[in-house]
Amino acid sequence: MSYRKFNTSWMKTLGAAALSATFLAAPQARAADAETASPVRIVVTGITDADFIANVFAGFLEQNGYKVERVKADYAAQFVGLEAGDMDFSTSIWDTSRDIMDAALATGKVQNMGSTGVKIREGWWYPLYVKELCPGLPDWKALLEPACVKALATVESAPKARFVEAPADWTTNNAARLEALKLPFVLEGTGTPAALHAAIVGAVQRKEPVIGWGFMPDWMTEQYPGEFVQFPHFEAACATDPKWGGNPDKVWDCDNPYGYVWKVANTKSEARLPRASRMLRLYHLTAADVAWGIRRVDVDGIESEKAAEEWLKAHPDLVADWAL
Amino acid sequence: MSTTNRILLCDNVWKVYGPDADTFLSTREQPPSPEDLAAAGLLAAVRGVSLSISQGEIFVIMGLSGSGKSTLLRCMTRLVEPTAGSILLGGTNLLNATERQLMQIRREKMGMVFQNYALMPHLSALENVAFPLKVQGMKRAAREARAQQMLDLVGLGGRGRHYPHELSGGQQQRVGIARSLTLEPDIWFLDEPFSALDPLVRREMQDEFLRLQTLLRKTIVFVTHDFAEAVRLADRIAIMREGAVVQVATPEALVLAPADPYVSAFTRDIPRAQVVTARSAMDLGPDAAGSAGVAAAARVIDIAERVLAAEGPVAVLAEDGGVLGALSREAVIRLLLAQPHTRPAPVQ
Amino acid sequence: MTAVELRSEPESRGDAVRGAGAARLPALALLAVAVLLCLLPQFGVEMPPALAAIPDRFILPWRQWAGEALTYVAKDSHIGPVMVSEITRGIAGVILQPMLLLQGLVSKGLTVGGVELPPLPWPSVMLASALLGLRFGSVRLALLTGGALLYAALFGLWDATMLTLASVLVSVAFGVLLGTWLGILAFRHPRVDRALQPLYDVMQTVPIFAYLVPILYLFGFGPVGAMMATVIYAMPPMARVTTLALRGVPASIGEAAAMAGCTRGQVMRLALLPSALPKMMIGVNQVLMLSLTMVIIASVIGADGLGAVVLKALQSLKIGRGLEAGLAIVLVAIALDRLGQAIAERRPQHRDAAGSRRWALAFAVALVLPCLLAPMIPALANWPADWSVSTASWWDARIAQMNLAFAGPLRELKTFAFLWLLRPTKLFFLAVPWIGAVTLVAALGLLLGGWRLALSCGLMMLFVAGCGFWEPAQLSLYLIAISVALALLIGMPLGLACAASPRFNAGMRVVLDTIQTLPSFVYLIPVIMLLGSGDFPALIAIVVYAVTPAVRFTADALRHVPGEIVEAARMSGASRWQNFGWVKVPLARPGLLLAVNQTVMMAFGMLVITALIGTKGLESDTLISLSKADPGRGIIAGAAMAFLAIIIDRLLRAAAGGQAARP
C-alpha cells in the first residue's frame, strides 16, 4: 500500500500541455470558446465515492477543453459554496442528506441537475457471520430475538443491543424506527464516516457480532461480505402517516427509501457554462462503476483522479453519450 | 541664586491620582491636606510644589522613595500630566502645549536620563544614541556620525556596535547619558541615574557627570534618594517629603540650618568639611599670611590640605580677588574632626 | 520608579479579591442550599419538574433568533449600499494573495507575466530550512528542521507538507498581526481589554462548526475559510501575550522614547514593540502550535495538505498512512516550535553585522542553486518516486494484530471504567436540576469573588439552562468533568516530576509536543476499532490533549516558587515532604489553579473533536446544525459551551485570587 507519487504540480503542467496538444486537433476543441476560458469549479469532499464521481466528470470536462478547479469542501459546508456561487457543480449529493439539499434548493440559488444514476442502498448492515447468531436474518424480525439481542449487546448498551449509528448529521430515521418497530437497540453515535467504519470494521476483523449503518457504494460494504437487514419496504406514507405499516401509532415502521446520488449546480452557473451544464445533466454512472472506482482507490491505493482517468479511457462509448 | 536668569519655573504644581482629581482640587479654596485627599479616595504624589531653577545650575531633588520626586520630575517633562499648577519653561507654559508642540519642545530643549538606563534592547549602543535623531528622520550616516561623537564624549567610542546586554551597568548608563545629550538640550533631567550602580561605579559616574558639566554647562534637574550624592553634586537641593517640598537650599545651608528634624536627619551623616565653604569657616579680619588665597566658595574638604600646610591662616578671596577673611588651621581641623552627628561648634 | 508605581496603582486595584470576609457567611449558606439542591435527585427525591428542567414554554426562541440574525449578517446586511459580504469577500481576496504566492512558491508553481514557473525544488526548501536552523540555533536544530522535511519527502508527503506549511505560515502571520494589533489596543485601553477577554474565551471554546456557515458566506470557500477558522482559534494567545509583554516593558523605555521626541505611534513602533518582541515570541509560538492542531479541523472544512491526507487515509482505515502523515505534522510542528524559540531566545550580538552578509549569501546559494540545476537533473525537481518509502502496511498489520490481541483486555478496562466511572457520573450530571446548578454557580461566585461574579456566572448558567440545550450541556459537562479530573490526576504528578528533574522534563517535552500536535484521529480511530465509538474514545481524546497544560503549568508553578523561601524552609529543618506540602504547594497555589484552568479550557477546545467521534453533548449540536441547515442551533449550542467554559474559568481565576495571569 505504499504511496509513491510524483510531484503532482509538475505532472499537472505536463499533463495539461499534453492534453491541450491532443485536443486542439480533436473536433470537440472547437467548443473551446468563451465558455472554457473561466474555470469550472467542482466540489470534492474527500469521500472516496463522491470524489470518484466528481473526478470522472472533471476529467471529462478537461477532455472537452475546460479548465477544472477541484474545490475541496466539507460535505455539509459545500452547500454554502454552491449557494454563494463559490462552486459551480457538485456531483454527489446523497438522498441521505435530504434536509440540507432541500434547504439549499429552497433558496433558489441551487438547482437540481438530476440523478447521477448511481443507486444507493443504505440501512442496517451486518457481516454475514452474524446470521449464525441471529437466524432468520436478513428479515428484521430476527433482531427481536433475545439471543440475537444478547449477542449484539455491549456493556454500554446492555440489556439492549448496540447499533453503530451513522454520524449524527446523516438522515437515518433510526431513532424513529427503533420506536416504531420496538427494536431493543441503543444507537451508538459516530461523528464521522471514519469513526463509523472504524467501529464496524474493528469488530468485523475480530469476527465479533456487530450491526451498524452501512451504505453502498462504499469500500466497507465492498470489501467485507455482509448484507442489509430487510425492513418493511418503504412507501411515502410510511414516513408521514402513522397508520401505515405494522405500528399504527408511529411513522418509520419501514426501511429507508432507496435513493440516488444527485447532481446540483449553482443557478447562475448554467448561464455562464451552458454546455458544461448540459453535459452535467447528461452525466450518469452506475453503482457498479462507482464500486470499481472505490476499489481502485481504497483497496488498490491509487489516486482518485488517476482512477477516474483510467475509467474514462476504458469507457469511451459511455462518455460519448454525455457530450451529445 | 539670582532670579533673573531662571529657566524653569514650577508654580503650585499638583499631581493627584484618583477619580475627578482635578475638580476636587479646583473646588477647594484651601489646599487640601493629605488627610482630606485620602478621605476623598485620592492619592497625592505632588502637592503644591513651587520651584525656580536657574540657567546653568545643578538642581537636585532629594527624597525617599514615595516622596514624589520622580513624579515631580515627570511633571516637569510632562511625561506625567500634572493635575494643577503651571510649569514655565523659558516663558512658555508647558501645560498649554499641544502634543505636537510638546514633542517639539522635547526634541529641542530637553534631555533625560533614566534610573534603569531605559536603553532599547534591540538597538546597539550607537543606534540607541542615534535614536532621537532617527525619530526626526535624519539620514543614517549623519546621525551615526553624531552619535559616535557623543559616545566618544562619554568614553565609550569603541563600544558602539555592542548591544545593551553586552555592556556593564555603568557603560549602559553612559550610553543613556550620551543619548540624552544627542539633541543638545537646554535642560537635562536625570532621574536617579546612578542609583542602580555599584558604589564604586557610582562614584566614578558622579565624577564623569561633573566633568561633563564643566564641559557643557547645562541646566540640570537631578533626582536622587542619596543625600551624599545630592550634597556632592548640587548647587541647590530641594528636599521632598510626602509630595511636598520641605526645604530648598544650598548643601551648606541645608547642613548648617536644616528647616526641620526631617531634614536634619538626612544631614547627620554628612561630614561637615564636605559641605562647609571657606566663606563660612573663615575668621573675619585681614589676618591672612601668604599670597595665594583660597576661593570663598571652595569647600573646606577640598582646600584643607593647603590650609594645613600653610604657615598661618590662609586668605579667603572673593570672586573679584578681594580678601574677605582668613581661614585658620584650627578652624579646618575643627571641621574635619567634627562628629557628623553633632552640630558643629559655632564658627568664630 | 515612584511615579511608575503610583501610576499603575489605580488600575490594578480594581480586580482585587473582594468579599472574602464580609460575604462569607451568606455565601456559605447559599452554597449549602445549592449542594443540597444538586444532590436531592441522587437520594431519590423528586424535584418539581419545573425546577428540574426549565419547562419548554419558558424557553425563549434563542435558536430561531440566532439563526435569523446569522442569516441576515451573512446574506443581507449592508453598510450603506455595499453588502457586508462583498466587503468581507474583498478582504478575503486580499488575504488570499500571500497564501497563493506561498503555495505557488513551494508547491503549485507560479505564473509570472504569462510564464509558468515550477515550484521551488525540494533541495532548495530543505537546505534553506536547515540553514535557518543553523543560523538561529545549532547543528542539532538544523538536523531537526532539515530532517522534518526529509521525512516528508521520504514518505511521499512533500506536496502535502508544503501546502500545510504554506497555509500554516500564512495563518500564523495573519494571526500574529491581528493579535499584535488587538494586543496593542488592549494595552492602550484597559476597557477594550476587559471587553476582549471574554471574546477570546468564546473564540477558543466555541467549536468552529457553530459559525462555519457565516464564515464561509462572508469569506468564501477555499483556503481563506479554513484560515479564518484557524486564526479564530489560534490568535487569542497572541493578543494576550502582546498586552502582557507591552505591560512588561519598563515604563522608562516608553518615556525615553517620548523624551527623544517620538510621536505616540513612534513610541509604540520604535520603542515599545521592539522591546516587547522577545516576550511576544512566546505568543507567536503558541499561535503556531495551535494552528497546527487545527490542521485536521481545517481539512474537514476544506483545506488541502497533510490534514486532508490524514483524514482521507483514516476514512478508509488506512491507519498506517494516517500515522505517517500525522507524524509529518508533528515533525513540522516541533521543528517550527524549536526554530521559533531559538529565534526568540537569540539576543543581538555586536559581531552579528559582519556575519550576516555571509549568511545571506549561503541562503541565496541554497535557494538558487537547486533551481538552476533542476531542469538538468529531474531528481532535484521532483523527489523521485523510487526514493520514497512507506511503513504504512507494516503499521496496518500491527494494528490488525493489536485489534485481535488486545481487544479483550482493553474491553475489560473499558467495562470497568464504564460501570464505575462513566455511567455513574453521567447519571449524576443528568439528574442535576437546573435550579441547583444555577444556585451552585452563584454561590461559588459569591464565595470566591463577590456579588458581581455571582450575578454574571449565575446569569450565564441560567442561559445555559434556559436556551433549550440543557441535556446536551450536562452531557458535555460530564465528559469535561471526568476528563479534567483524569488529566489532572495524570498530569500533575508528571508536572511535579518535570519540575524536579530537568532530564525528565526534556523527555516529557517531546512527548507533550507530540501529543499536542499529532492529530488525535490517528490514535482515536484504532481505539474506536478496538472499543467502539462513543464516550470512551472521546474521554481518551480529551484526556490525552488536556494532560499537556496540566503537566506544563504544574511544572511551571512549582518551578517559580522562590528558591530563597524553599531554602529558608530547609534551614528551618523542614523535611522534603514538609517542604513540598507546606511551602511549595501553598506558594504555587495560584499557578496550580491556573493549571486546572488551562486544563479545563483545553478540554473544552477538544470537544470539537469528540463531536467527530460521536459524543452527544453541545458539541454534537454544533456539528449537526451544519448539515441540517439550522445555524441557530449551532450558534446557541456553541454559546452555551462558551458560557460553561467562561463560568469555570472565572470561578477558578477568582479562586486563584485574581493573581493568575493568562498565558
TrEMBL record, chain A:
It holds the Pfam family OpuAC. The keyword Nucleotide-binding does not apply. Residues 1-31 form the signal peptide. The keyword Transmembrane helix does not apply. Residues 39-313 form the ABC-type glycine betaine transport system substrate-binding domain. InterPro entries: ABC_Gly_betaine_transp_sub-bd. It comes from the Bacteria. Keywords: Signal. This is ABC transporter substrate-binding protein. It comes from Ancylobacter koreensis.
TrEMBL record, chain B:
The keyword Methyltransferase does not apply. GO terms for molecular function: ATP binding. It comes from the Bacteria. SMART domains: AAA (SM00382). Residues 8-267 form the ABC transporter domain. Keywords: ATP-binding, Nucleotide-binding. This is ATP-binding cassette domain-containing protein. It comes from Ancylobacter koreensis. The lineage of its organism: Bacteria, Pseudomonadati, Pseudomonadota, Alphaproteobacteria, Hyphomicrobiales.
TrEMBL record, chain C:
The keyword Ubl conjugation does not apply. Its main location: membrane. Pfam families: BPD_transp_1 (PF00528). It is found in: Cell membrane. Gene3D superfamilies: MetI-like. The chain crosses the membrane at residues 20-40, 141-158, 164-187, 208-235, 282-302, 322-339, 359-381, 427-448, 453-471, 477-498, 592-614, 634-652. The keyword Cell membrane applies. Belongs to the binding-protein-dependent transport system permease family. This is ABC transporter permease subunit. It comes from Ancylobacter koreensis.
